[in-house]
């Protein structure tokens, strides 16, 4: 049986970590594509030379030619500029639209049966554009944002409560912008509501709420926090880990429930837009979108986030 094949379009900061993680987990053979000559070839050679140390048996190929992505099962797209301090994700729309348009053509021509995971920002608009250009069915074109936003929320909760990150479950919905919706009501440690644990820790309901609100605020601004520290680019380790978990769920038909930027056709009252929602990812890509009732406050936040996504996507030329 042939090995699976993963193509990574964009060999920059995230692309390099994606290649290494895909190899370490032996998800399949890896092709790293970039327009810069030598960059993907150098990164792949570097990672491959660690294979005897780490013990992974996969092939890594760096390329500047789309032909090499032929036969890919999953394609992960990070081509495009990242933010610099002071920039919003939306500021990238013009420059990254042009890049995504060319990437879409390459994928459509050479990997027409692949599942595509987009990471390039502004995420909700770039995944929309890539789907339009490839014309691939919606279940095969998704965006990564919610796995990372949720992981950040989970990390802050675990650090605040002094528990393992493995025992925290929390999720964000909506667009990948400052209006994202971290779901406080469903944040739990092994099913125990985080708010209750905070109330017991501080013996004060108002203080518990204040701490939770600070974690929500930090989650919404977490990408910007990293950008401000790095000064030359944006987060790249965690976005790579997030996309790899989505790719793995598809390649291994794990059917994990992951917050995914999916095309909605009436779910959550949204029609015709890509928005972050919990989805079952398996060998058919998006196999199911899980819906549940939001309370009035959550719905209002979701509406605001969806409105921001709509105005950004509607500005696409
Ligand atoms: P960076 O290190 O600049 O890598 C981008 C790569 O894209 C560079 O190597 C470029 O040469 C390459 N590139 C440019 N044009 C093309 C093209 N036409 N075809 C193929 N490759 C091209 O950036 P990065 O890896 O740090 O970030 C990549 C993208 O991910 C940016 O748009 C970020 O804003 C975005 N990002 C998204 C998240 C999410 O969670 C959604 C998180 C962090 C970054």
UniProtKB/TrEMBL annotation:
The alphabetical list of record keywords is: NAD, Oxidoreductase, Tricarboxylic acid cycle
Catalytic residues (positions): 176
Residues binding NAD(+) are: 10-15, 34, 96, 119-121
Query: Can you tell me which residues the record assigns to a coiled coil?
Result: none
> GO MF terms on file?
L-lactate dehydrogenase (NAD+) activity; L-malate dehydrogenase (NAD+) activity
Q: Which catalysed reactions does the entry list for this protein?
A: (S)-malate + NAD(+) = oxaloacetate + NADH + H(+)
Which GO BP terms sit in this record?
A: lactate metabolic process; tricarboxylic acid cycle
Gene3D superfamilies assigned to the protein according to its UniProt record, in alphabetical order: Lactate dehydrogenase/glycoside hydrolase, family 4, C-terminal (3.90.110.10), NAD(P)-binding Rossmann-like Domain (3.40.50.720)
Where do the annotations place substrate binding?
83, 89, 121, 152
> Which SUPFAM superfamilies does the entry mention?
LDH C-terminal domain-like, NAD(P)-binding Rossmann-fold domains
Report domain Lactate/malate dehydrogenase C-terminal positions. Answer: 148-313
**UniProt-listed InterPro entries:** L-lactate/malate_DH (IPR001557), Lactate/malate_DH_C (IPR022383), Lactate/malate_DH_N (IPR001236), Lactate_DH/Glyco_Ohase_4_C (IPR015955), Malate_DH_type3 (IPR011275), NAD(P)-bd_dom_sf (IPR036291)
The chain positions of domain Lactate/malate dehydrogenase N-terminal read: 5-143
Q: EC annotation?
A: 1.1.1.37
Q: Name one Pfam family in it.
A: Ldh_1_N
UniProt family annotation: Belongs to the LDH/MDH superfamily. MDH type 3 family.
HAMAP family, from UniProt? Malate_dehydrog_3
Instruction: Tell me, in a sentence or two, what this protein's role is.
Output: Catalyzes the reversible oxidation of malate to oxaloacetate.
Q: What is this protein called?
A: Malate dehydrogenase
Encoding gene, per UniProt annotation: mdh
